[in-house]
User: Fold this.
Amino acid sequence: MKSLRQRIVLLLILAIVTVVGLATFAASRVLQPPPQDDRIERLARQLLVLVAFIDSDPQAARAAGLKVQDRAVTDGFQDRMMSDRLSLALHNAGSTAQAQITLQDQPHRAVVSLYLGPERWLVTELNDGGPPPGGWMVLAGWGVLIVIGATCVSIFAAAKIIRPLQLLQDAVGRVGPDGTLPHIAETGSGEIRATAQAINRLSARLKTAMESRMRLVAAAGHDLRTPMTRMRLRAEFIADDADRQKWLSDLEELDQIADSAIRLVREEVNGDRAEEVELDAMICELVEELQLLGHPVSLGEHDNVIVSAAPLALKRALRNLIINAATHGGGATVELRRDGSNAVVSISDEGPGIPERLIEQVFEPFFRVDAGRRKAVPGAGLGLAIAREIFERFGGTITIANRKPHGLEQTITLLRA
Ligand SMILES: Nc1ncnc2c1ncn2[C@@H]1O[C@H](COP(=O)(O)OP(=O)(O)OP(=O)(O)O)[C@@H](O)[C@H]1O
Ligand SMILES: [Mg+2]
Assistant:
């Protein structure tokens, strides 16, 4: 039982059923019939009143339903002990009449036969005040009703109790690609309003923090350009050829990093309009373009699929991934297939892959797996961050996984238009 809601429901049901069960038990104790001796004495007195009534006015007694017959009732079980106790009680009350109690088939029903004289027996039914017939069924029904009632009340109460948490969960589940939470209506009870207000405050702060981070990155990328141009000019005057080349290639890498940083910021704040894009045509075009640039890229099976995205941004994202497979992975194979309402692009290579423990980190800006590879494949460590930003903006996802025995597979899922 993992969910908090289920635990609260179960706890409330247990609490309610226990309390009602205990209350029922206590009530049944308090409402016990009087002790048996008292009842027997009362019965003896009542019988004597009936006998007196019959003696004084037999006709009225018959009209009232009192039965006098020539023999005692014999069918049923003779309860000797109770019969003796009743006879004793009659004796104590000043009568010499003998009584016989016969238990009937039905529970808690008995018949008293009281000897009045030769061939004269007063026969009257006796109800000992026990629970009505079918008592267990009634008790079971009562129990079922309590459990059903307790379940309904508990589900309702649990929903109310965890409403603020639900609100939080829903809000976090709807976090946009820019990391901000959707606005939540600040209505409802005190706690719910407070939760909604706290989430909205958090969202506003996150938005401000994101925006200032973006501005900072963009400004740094931009401002680096001027000193870098000056450095490049100075580097051109370095006399030693090898030394100059090193300076220029380092400056080139720095330039790329600044460029990518500005591009990442642009992607995050960009609001490019989505339109229908023929994904298969775009991928064919990209593969050709990269092949012309000398990248080892090949095209596998590709279905006709149309997706909804901003074409330039989508192309940039796919280009980043294919270049990764071609450079870090030594050669890319691109495939595109339709899968229900999705378009699935798979970009695979047979390179070294990425250590499992780092696989989620590669989406972080400026993260590069291996500093040693830096020289072989220059880059800023922003390609994957930019690509994910773009796919998520258009409702898509990207996952990467190592292949067996080696290599990497990058899978992009986009909604078909
Ligand atoms: N197909 C791949 N095979 C092996 N490692 C990869 C692959 N794709 C990405 N990586 C690793 O993930 C890191 C991050 O990739 P990412 O594209 O974000 O940055 P980059 O390629 O280093 O630089 P940039 O794309 O900004 O020029 C890479 O540095 C590389 O170590
Ligand atoms: Mg890259």
About this structure: The chain has a mean pLDDT of 86. The chain has eleven helices and twelve strands. Residues 249 and 255 are 10 Å apart (CA to CA).
